[in-house]
Write a structure and sequence with these properties.
It is a single chain. This protein is mainly α. It has helices spanning 4-11, 15-39, 45-64, 69-81, 83-96, 103-132, 134-155, 167-172, 177-197, 200-208, 212-238, 241-258, 266-280, 284-294, 299-326, 334-364. The protein has a single domain (4-364), classed as Growth Hormone, Chain: A (Up-down Bundle), CATH 1.20.1250.20. Helix 9 runs antiparallel to helix 14 (284-294) and helix 11 packs parallel to helix 13. The radius of gyration is 20 Å and the shape is globular. The protein starts with a helix and ends with a helix. The mean pLDDT is 83.
Length: 365
Amino acid sequence: MGLLPDIARDLGVSIPLAGQVVTAYALGVAVGAPLLAVATARMPRKKVILLSVAIFILGNALSAVAPGYLFLIAARVIAAFAHGTMFGVGAVVAASVVPPGKRASAIGLMFTGLTLANILGVPFGTFVGQGLGWRATFWFITGLGVVALVPVALFIPFVKADPSANLGREFAVLRRGSVLLALSTTVFASASVFVLFTYIVPILQDVTGFAPRQVTPILLMIGVGLTIGITLGGRFSDRGVMRAMILVLAALTVALLLMPPVLPYRIPTLAMIFLWSMLAFGGVPAFQSRVVDQASDAPNLASTINIGAFNLGNAGGALLGGLVIDRGFGLQAVPVAAAAVAAIAALTAIAGAARERNSTSRGRS
């Protein structure tokens, strides 16, 4: 996301069109997650993760050599195909090695890898891209993928696939109302985050007035906020998943609504963005844990599809943010659109909680 202005300039496209590179990656995750989950259903979980990393390496190498916009879109889709399976299977492996009461924390700890990537990768990638060109960033990511194969091979525990895996049974969980509500919450919550996150660099530069060299440490600050949020969110979720989801989404909605008036002012903007960054990923452990809980008889597919749901939200968020800008509402309207989507996510979470209470009441009666 920090490379969008450079990609747009180099490939001769607009910022909103460059933003669709993010959309393409996210859609690749949403489509690739169930397909790869089905194809690897009976493969040992460690081999699935290794395969995912290898596909990721290929996609990023192709991104680095992309001769044009459409080739770059295709390369991002290839890289994205492994993403959902990597995080979905990874979440199930993480949850399987801890007691039931610690599953949300374990999933949150695994996703801390994603937030650490935001702390280090987004600002460093932006720095490299501004100095050496955006292609250099993708080459660097490719190299990191190669390096990552080693600890994955050495340290991830061997977890067998379920030999009785039944695709019909696995996909049947998608007909459950509780699972669909949980997935909907994930989609809308993620969309809310990426309405703003996709266009954070143009907002910081064009609205708040930060110079390009000042954006990198701000992205670092956002990464710190994401890590704090997901760590605290995992601990909070262990005490009550539904309560954590609803409270985080309500707070996220309010924070986004308070953001537009302060965007012209640097210090208040930094404070609001840090608060937003903590809330943005604070619900991730709850979202993932909720889907695994509601589809406990098909955890691999459900967990993987939930990663696809995250990225479907990413795609929708990037698209919605681009539409807000294209329709002339301006960059300051982007947080308002994000707040509207966060409010919808909160409503789906409330509906899920109500459904759970009603089911419990019927069970007791």
